[in-house]
Design goal:
- By secondary structure, this protein is an alpha/beta fold.
- It contains 13 helices and 7 strands.
- The chain has helices at 16-29, 44-48, 59-64, 69-72, 90-96, 106-110, 112-117, 131-139, 157-170, 190-202, 216-220, 228-231, 236-251; strands spanning 3-7, 34-38, 74-75, 81-84, 120-124, 142-148, 176-183.
- It has a 7-stranded mixed beta sheet with strand order 3-4-2-5-1-6-7, sandwiched between helices.
- Helix 1 packs across helix 13 (236-251).
- The longest helix has 16 residues, at 236-251.
- The structure holds adenosine-5'-triphosphate and magnesium ion.
- Magnesium ion binds at residues 16-17, 40, 44.
Length: 252
């Protein structure tokens, strides 16, 4: 039985997709069969792993019941890493999903077979707490919350944790927070150090020791359709995501 991780934060641009793609790649590289599921209509994770964003069947077809996850899952250029790609149509699912009773469970049910086959499944969520993210949080065992090391970092985190508690109570008692991840950290600035201290103080024991630095190579990699560990295996960004993957595995 594999473990499913949702990468979630309703705030946009905090490093969810970058973390989903790179943690998935590091885990696959370590030899575990890994699946990345892109349920963000922006399809950034899909494109970041070199797949087209308009392929079929895709995550929309799976949620609509027109394809099984097994049919939609593709191989990626990273050995051991498979992808269930997104599609811009998924934007419509946010409107269509709530109309169907039990629609929060669609992704969980669709991934039941994949959970047997993949040791790790990583879900890249859109920047909202809408029906797609709720589906991810119902399907997930753990959630990783990327937090950009900038002013306003704490804003919205309390609300997110409330939502997680609600989902645990009403829909998915298994769900736990694997950790908060400080991203895009610029160690040269006082602000980044202050924000890191502040987040660690507010959420003791919840923040991963590993901090992801702001790193040009991380930002470049998606334009080549590869994770950073393939773009530049020895840069600081690759080191950090490998460390994070180890910490995620160790937290169990
Ligand atoms: N550690 C980093 N160093 C440099 N650039 C980064 C880093 N992490 C992310 N980025 C860049 O910052 C931007 C936002 O990151 P990303 O797409 O991962 O955020 P997101 O939370 O998935 O955004 P959205 O909410 O729109 O889905 C991207 O251009 C990405 O390449
Ligand atoms: Mg994203």
């Amino acid at each position: 039985m594999g473990t499913i991780y949702a990468i979630a934060n309703q705030k946009g641009g905090v490093g969810k997709t970058t973390t989903a793609v790179n943690v998935a790649a590091c885990i696959a590289e370590a030899g575990y069969p890994t699946l990345l599921v892109d349920i963000d209509p922006q399809a950034n994770a899909t494109v970041g792993l070199g797949l087209p964003k308009d392929g079929t069947p895709n995550a929309y077809d799976v949620l609509a019941g027109d394809a099984t996850a097994e049919e939609a899952i593709r191989a990626s250029a990273v050995e051991g890493l498979s992808v269930l790609p997104s599609h811009p149509d998924l934007a419509g699912a946010s409107v269509e999903l709530p109309r169907a009773p039990g629609s929060e469970n669609l992704l969980r049910d669709a991934l039941a077979a994949a959970k047997q086959r993949f040791a790790f499944t990583i879900l890249d969520c859109p920047p909202s707490l809408g029906p797609l993210t709720v589906n991810a949080l119902v399907a997930a065992d753990r959630v990783i919350v990327p937090v950009q090391t900038e002013y306003f970092a704490l804003e919205g985190l309390a609300g997110l944790l409330d939502t997680l508690s609600l989902i645990r109570r009403e829909l998915n008692p298994r769900l736990t927070v694997a950790g908060m991840l400080l991203t895009m950290h610029d160690g040269r600035t006082r602000l980044a150090r202050d924000v890191e201290q502040e987040v660690r103080k507010h959420f003791p024991a919840l923040v991963f020791d590993t901090v992801i630095p702001r790193n040009v190579r991380i930002g470049e990699a998606p334009s080549y359709g590869v994770p950073v560990i393939h773009h530049d295996p020895h840069c600081l960004g690759s080191d950090a995501y490998f460390e994070l993957a180890k910490e995620v595995a160790a937290r169990g």
